[in-house]
Amino acid sequence: MKSNAKYMYRHLIYLLLCCLVLPLSANAQQQKVLVMEIKSEIDPRTNRYTELALDHATEINADHVLLVLDTFGGALNDADEIRTRLLEYPKPVYVFINKNAASAGALISLACDSIYMAPGANIGAATVVGADGEAAPGKYQSYMRSIMRSTAEAQNRNPHLAEAMVEASVDSTLSAGQVLTFTTSEAIKYGFCEGTATNVTQVLEQLNLQDAELVTYQLSAANKIISFFLNPFVSGILLLLIMGGLYFELQTPGVGFPLAAAVIAGILYLTPYYLNGLAENWEILLFILGLVLIGLEVLVIPGFGIAGISGIILSFLSLVLIMVNNQSFDFTFVPSDNLKQSLISVLIGMVGAVLLAALTWNRFAASRSVQRLVLNNTFQGDEGYRSSADSSHLVGRTGIAHTPMNPTGRVIIDDILYDAQAREGFIEKGEQVQVIDHSTFSLRVKKV
Question: Are strands 93-102 and 122-124 parallel, antiparallel or unpaired?
Answer without folding.
Answer: parallel
